[in-house]
Amino acid sequence: MKTTRVSRPIPLALTALVAFFSALAALAVSNGHDAHGHAYAAHHSRGPEVVATGTAAQAS
Amino acid sequence: VTLAELRGDIVILSCAVSAGVHGALVPDHLEEDIAAGLGFVGATALLAVLVVGLTVRPENALLLAAAAAVFVGLLVSYLLAITTGFPILHPEPEPVDGLALGTKAIEAVGLLAASSLLRLRVATALPQPKRTMT
Fold it and tell me: What is the ipTM of this complex?
């Protein structure tokens, strides 16, 4: 019996899984950057309020 | 798995990774600028079509050439985006970030695999010169 080997590329389901996890990784990385940016901005915007509250507490 | 098959799989996987990353970044870019967001939608759609096309018809040289052209387009677009800004879609240059650099590295690997596979196909398709005994 003669058998011929048919070469097929990587299965589409596996490729879709790779694309899905790439998207998840991209979202995690980009949200991490955003969260860091927001935390930095929040920290810097809160600074003067803390000082003001502290001053008010000392004055009373 | 032969080396040619492996190269074909690398091209498909590079398209898949790039499609996933571009697709995930569509909402952020649409919020920022609708033209840039639509550019990302177009890139994702093109890459998804290439993934399906190259999986269904791996022997199609036209699809392979299209994949190489899309990778070149994406790499040149990013180079423009971080230097002079991309005309119309993103005129302001953007800062370099790790995620983009990683994605471009994968696209460059995909481009190398696609172009070497194309060269291989051309070499096997062309008639070989007859060897003369001297």
Answer: 0.85
